TrEMBL record:
<dbReference type="InterPro" id="IPR015892">
    <property type="entry name" value="Carbonic_anhydrase_CS"/>
</dbReference>
<dbReference type="InterPro" id="IPR036874">
    <property type="entry name" value="Carbonic_anhydrase_sf"/>
</dbReference>
<dbReference type="GO" id="GO:0034599">
    <property type="term" value="P:cellular response to oxidative stress"/>
</dbReference>
<dbReference type="GO" id="GO:0071244">
    <property type="term" value="P:cellular response to carbon dioxide"/>
</dbReference>
<keyword id="KW-0479">Metal-binding</keyword>
<comment type="similarity">
    <text>Belongs to the beta-class carbonic anhydrase family.</text>
</comment>
<dbReference type="Pfam" id="PF00484">
    <property type="entry name" value="Pro_CA"/>
</dbReference>
<dbReference type="GO" id="GO:0015976">
    <property type="term" value="P:carbon utilization"/>
</dbReference>
<dbReference type="GO" id="GO:0005737">
    <property type="term" value="C:cytoplasm"/>
</dbReference>
<dbReference type="GO" id="GO:0004089">
    <property type="term" value="F:carbonate dehydratase activity"/>
</dbReference>
<comment type="function">
    <text>Reversible hydration of carbon dioxide.</text>
</comment>
<dbReference type="InterPro" id="IPR001765">
    <property type="entry name" value="Carbonic_anhydrase"/>
</dbReference>
<feature type="binding site">
    <location>
        <position position="106"/>
    </location>
    <ligand>
        <name>Zn(2+)</name>
    </ligand>
</feature>
<dbReference type="GO" id="GO:0008270">
    <property type="term" value="F:zinc ion binding"/>
</dbReference>
<protein>
    <recommendedName>
        <fullName>Carbonic anhydrase</fullName>
        <ecNumber>4.2.1.1</ecNumber>
    </recommendedName>
</protein>
<keyword id="KW-0862">Zinc</keyword>
<feature type="binding site">
    <location>
        <position position="49"/>
    </location>
    <ligand>
        <name>Zn(2+)</name>
    </ligand>
</feature>
Amino acid sequence: MAFQDQNKFLYALSSNQAWAGYKSHQNPAFFKNLASGQSPSILWLGCSDSRVPETTILGLQPGDVFVHRNIANIVAPTDINTSAVIEYAVAHLKVKHVVLCGHSACGGAKAALGDSRVGGVLDTWLTPLKAVRTQNAEELAGIKDDDHRAVRIAEMNVETGVKVLMANFTVQEAIKERGLSVHGCIFDIASGRIRDLGFGTKSSKSHRSSSILSNGGEEEIVRGKHAQLVFRDGGDASMLVR
């Protein structure tokens, strides 16, 4: 639907009214249940990019995912904001999965690959990503395609962030005490697909499954509008697309 820039916020408000009405019609108890509290299974650490809305791309619903997003999905041990989110989600909400997800065409990744200043606080914020570039300069220099190079440093950034997560005391305790799973992923904007990079507690199986296999043991089911995810003991996952 085409509309003028100055009307976008009014359109968004009207769209919210329509969405709330639709959800209430679909499930009269939906908002009442949401208001009673939250018990998300997933902590999502992602980028602020408008093209990577976690609940939408996962096919899930409000209440399913606890979220923290920042420029270039940087997880630094000195960032009290990120640390507070991790501690609350893991120690208090008892999430079962921590997902750190980067993405293709990331502006922060491209900026970190460049030599010019971005300006303001952004240069300071991107310091950890610049460090990743320096540490992997030889490999990155060997990638001639700019887009591929940006994806590669985004992957490296996720790997670095997962290492920070795995060194976090709260995360370590949850892994030992209740089997918390940590995952590192990349979202490809051009295809809409999330790829598990294999970093973390244990690599998840392919998300391309068209059916759910039952191998016994304890499992948790997360149902979304278009898909159903099954997480099993040991970190394995499968998806049923509806």
